[in-house]
Amino acid sequence: MSSQDPKASSRAEEFLSIFRKGAEFTRELLKEKERLRGELASVRDRQEVAAQSPEQWEKLRRELLSRIHSLEQECSSVRERLDQVERENGQFAQRYVEIEEENNNLANLYVASYQLHSTLDPDEVLKIILEIAINLIGAEVFAVYLLNEETGELRAVASEGADLAGFPRIKLGQGMLGKAVAATEATCWDVQAGSDPSQPVVCVPLAVQDRPVGAIVVHSLLQQKGGFTPLDHELFNMLGRHAATAIFAARLYSQSARKLNTIQGFIDLLTK
Amino acid sequence: MAKYRVLIVEDSPTMRQLLVFALRRLKDVEIVEAQDGMDGLRRVSSDHFDIALIDINMPVMDGLKLIRLMRDEESLRQIPIIVVTTEGADEDRERALALGANEYLTKPIQANRVLAVVKDLLKANA
User: Fold this and answer.
1) From the CA of B13, how many Å to the nearest CA of chain A?
2) The domain B4-125 is classified under which CATH number: 3.40.50.2300, 2.30.30.140, 3.40.350.10, 3.40.50.720?
3) What is the extent of the structural domain holding A128?
4) In this complex, do A131 and B12 lie within 8 Å of one another by their Cβ atoms?
5) Closest Cα of chain B to A6: distance in Å?
6) Which residue among B13, B15, B108 sits closest to A225, beta carbon to beta carbon?
7) Residue B86 near chain A (CB below 8 Å)
8) Which neighbouring-strand residues pair with A202?
């Protein structure tokens, strides 16, 4: 029994606490009831007074009409504010989507640029250009051309989707491709024309300081790629500059490495 | 310790870096990269992964073979697989899904789409 006493006491305390809360709530309700009753009585009094005199009645009517008018104005202002908030909300959502897209585009450009400058091996650079064209642009049949400055001829040095031999040589400044490369600006043709394998859909000239060094010529896009997006055009511009610089740097590096080996061999020959 | 471990099996370093960029937006994620199907199989067999993103055309072992091997192995059967590939034909999609891939995404990828699919599969598999 003694072990149950604390429990019983605690339950009693709990019950009392609930009871007290209930009592307090009831008191509040009674108080509110009294207040409302007083207000109702006051309204009735005013109505009765107003009913006895037409002036008072008119005054009350005008007061009520004015109150209705002000409430209607408030309501319309709140509605306008709500519409404005909804419009702002829609604009923010739209802006969020645009920022997300911009973020993705920047990530793509960063990755492409990072990869292009990650090596000084000319073959690796060409491989990375192919990867970018496939994975970021969605090119299916395309070739990377490099310019022979002595002959002024562009020759395909790497390709995807078709044999390298199938890509014709291009004379700089001649024909649609030669002219597009000489202009050092990416040129897009009708994507639907991609069904004709001899017809390119895009030519991205590779240029260092506005001097053409080669081009990426895309003949067809992957079937799921319907056309070019603004990101593609940014990629073309980026590729035109960065791929060219990467190729140029890799070529210079390999030439200097070859020269260094020759000189080293010569020195070894003289000193041994 | 990371909440989720994601395996990317892709031979193109450019594509791997893009996927890593997209997936880094997930909270508490550890990303492991494999450069071909065999490398992927080795990693998935020796460690726990919550999801795998697999390319189809890869040297040494292609993505379809890796998916088949993963689905044949009891301990790897439950790992959700997302195929990320250039192959956009319906028959390629059907083949990959029939082998047990959960989702099929074609390149060029949209980071948001990849992220949404990964999140959905992680939630469904939780």
Assistant:
1) 8
2) 3.40.50.2300
3) 117-259
4) yes
5) 46
6) B108
7) yes
8) A188, A218
Is A163 a domain residue? yes
Chain B environment of A100 (Cβ under 8 Å): 112
Average pLDDT value for chain B: 93
Q: What is the pLDDT of residues B66-124, one digit of tens each?
A: 999 999 999 999 999 999 999 988 999 999 999 999 999 999 988 889 999 999 999 99
In the prediction, which pLDDT does A191 show? 64
- DSSP per position, chain A: -TTTHHHHHHHHHHHHHHHHHHHHHHHHHHHHHHHHHHHHHHHHHHHHHHHH-HHHHHHHHHHHHHHHHHHHHHHHHHHHHHHHHHHHHHHHHHHHHHHHHHHHHHHHHHHHHHHHTS---HHHHHHHHHHHIIIII-EEEEEEEEEETTTTEEEEEEEESS-GGGSPPEETTSHHHHHHHHTTS-EE--GGGGGSTTS-SEEEEEEETTEEEEEEEEEEE-TT--S--HHHHHHHHHHHHHHHHHHHHHHHHHHHHHHHHHHHHHHHHHH-
At residue A47, the pLDDT reads 80
Which is more confident, A8 or A147? A147
pLDDT, residue A1, reads 44
Q: Name the pTM for this structure.
A: 0.74
**Predicted local confidence at residue A246, as pLDDT:** 93
Residue A87: pLDDT band with limits 50, 70, 90 = very high
DSSP β-bridge partners for residue A215: A145, A205
Q: Tell me which residue of A197, A180, A194 sits closest to A226, measured CA to CA.
A: A194
Contact A111 B14 (CB under 8 A): yes
- Across the interface, of B13, B21, B107, the residue whose CB is closest to A107 is B21
In degrees and rounded to multiples of 5, residue A145 shows phi and psi of -105, 145
Could you tell me the CATH number of the domain that includes residue A209?
Answer: 3.30.450.40
pLDDT band at A231 (very low <50, low <70, confident <90, very high): confident
